[in-house]
Amino acid sequence: MRFDGEDIMRINKIVVRNYKILKDIVIELNPKINIFVGDNDAGKSTILEVLSIITTGKLNGYAWDRQMKATLFNCDIREKYIAEVTLGKKPEPPRIIMEAYFDGDSRYKGTNNEFSENTPGIRVMAGISDDNTEVYRHMLANGEVKDIPIELYDVSYHYFSGEIVNFRTSPFKSVFIDTTRKGYSGVIDHFVSNSITDNLTDEDIRNLALAYKSSRIQFHEHEVVKKLNETVKSNDIVKGHDISLDLREDDVESWKRQMAVVVDSIPFENIGFGTQNIIKIELAMRNAENQANIVLLEEPENNLSFSNMAQLVNHVVKSNEKQVFISTHNSYIANKLDLGNVILVKEGKVRQYSSLPEETKKYFIKLPGYDTLRFVLASKVILVEGATDDLIIQRAYKDKTGHLPADDGIDIIAVEALAFKRFADIANLIGKEIVIVTDNDGNIKENIKEKYRGYIDRDNLKFIYESNINFYTIEPSVLNANCVDGQPTENFKKAISKNGSLESRDYDGILNFMEGNKTEWAFRIFESELSICYPEYIENVIAYFK
């Protein structure tokens, strides 16, 4: 692949088998930005873990092969294995497989992968080594196997060519920024180390090491330490041996690990979580520009203000020399970085958003404030034009059922009529059933049937609107439903009034108030102890979910 005139290696696909929630998954990746969204425990973070393991051999800073345990295996696979062993069968022990497919250097090219494709890539496999095959069979025969025998497992890292991966010379260098965790991270330690080596001569570094050693000697010679050791020695803890206390023996580089970042005279670990994240992200992105070509971001919006989040997004957009993988719950990030880069993760499965219409992608980039991820993650959705519709539908639902729509998993989202088509495109892509409640604006043919041609006949899209064109929006429609002989009922006037303020008004007076105070009148109805009547189309919205 070529970007900005240079050959830049990118991961174009990953395959995962039997790792945690990712039972059997293939993910086609975007060349620059990949945004994983989904509910908690859907598998977003697990995908980032896989990418870290493939590109570094590490997870959370430690070698992954030293973290192997049975709970890392997919629950279904593990339970099936245990059940077969319990029944006296002799199942093949399950394996965890992770693969990254990429374009580029032919040195890494081969067919040693799940699809036997002749392409460059990296294959990670956790399974019983050949040396332990007979041991495993013996343990099975003797009934010694009760769970996946992790103690017999090895982890291997190979290119598809068959060559063993050396991560020091690997084509991928990645950095993992997890803003959900407080405290130091590898990127901070890297900054400290680089600051020392980049700004000090070899002689300066030697002098600092000697100064550190001298301070340790001074500690040992301090009167209080001597007093402490005299007391310890007099206790005669171990017969025939002198016991004393001292600082642990360190290697010659230990002084570097004692250096810390201080921000405005405050130690890094004591500053605000948001500022920590800004610094960690900024340093990691800078490091990525210089060295890493893979950046993994876990919920970058965590504890960031809107302005800082916007700066982060701009930084990501401008960085062309790396591939970025983000897990997020934040619609601004997803919208601004292009919904086409979103990969929906649900129960360990994925769905790509790259096939969204271009005009829809551009719409949300230009107007990123829409809560697209809330829409995507909701199980049942009603789209409305504004807060007035939202409040009235909620109250109508409560009057009908005794509780609010949210209690039944129904999310009412106000998105404005101009965005209905854009959200409908998303719904069509992921097969989501939604209800769209819209005004007729005095012309059903022009403002609904023609405006939403190509959408209104879709099975998953239910358009509900007032059928009487004289009631062009919700105010006259609701008012008409609460009239007798052309005038508002006393019950409705009481419900919409504040301290009786509207009880003396006629139809025109009430309608003027409603149209001039859209959210206010709806809020009064929502809060009222009195129930009102609702237009037929509002009743149809409620009936759709019952």
Taking pLDDT < 50 over at least 5 consecutive residues as the criterion, the unreliable ranges are 1-6
* Alpha-carbon Rg, integer: 32 Å
**Do you know the CATH architecture of the largest domain?**
3-Layer(aba) Sandwich
Number of helices: 20
> What is the makeup of the main sheet?
6 strands, antiparallel
The CATH superfamily of the largest domain is: P-loop containing nucleotide triphosphate hydrolases
* Average pLDDT over all residues: 85
CATH class assignment of the largest domain: Alpha Beta
Q: Kindly give the count of domains.
A: 2
- How many distinct beta strands? 24
Shape: globular
- Please estimate the helix content: 25-40%
Terminal-residue CA separation:
52 Å
How is this structure best summarized?
By secondary structure, the chain is α/β, with parallel strands linked by helices.
Task: Note down, in words, how this protein is organized.
The structure is a single chain. By secondary structure, this protein is an alpha/beta fold. It has two domains: 1-173 and 293-368, P-loop containing nucleotide triphosphate hydrolases (Rossmann fold, 3-Layer(aba) Sandwich), CATH 3.40.50; 378-546, no CATH class. Helix content is 39%, strand content 19%. It has 20 helices and 24 strands. The strands form seven sheets. Strands 3, 4, 8, 9, 10 and 11 form a six-stranded antiparallel β-sheet that branches. Strands 12-15-16-5-17-18 form a six-stranded mixed β-sheet, with helices on both faces. A four-stranded parallel β-sheet has the order 20-19-21-22. A hairpin with an 8-residue loop joins strand 9 and strand 10. It is globular, with a radius of gyration of 32 Å. Mean pLDDT is 85; it is low at 1-6.
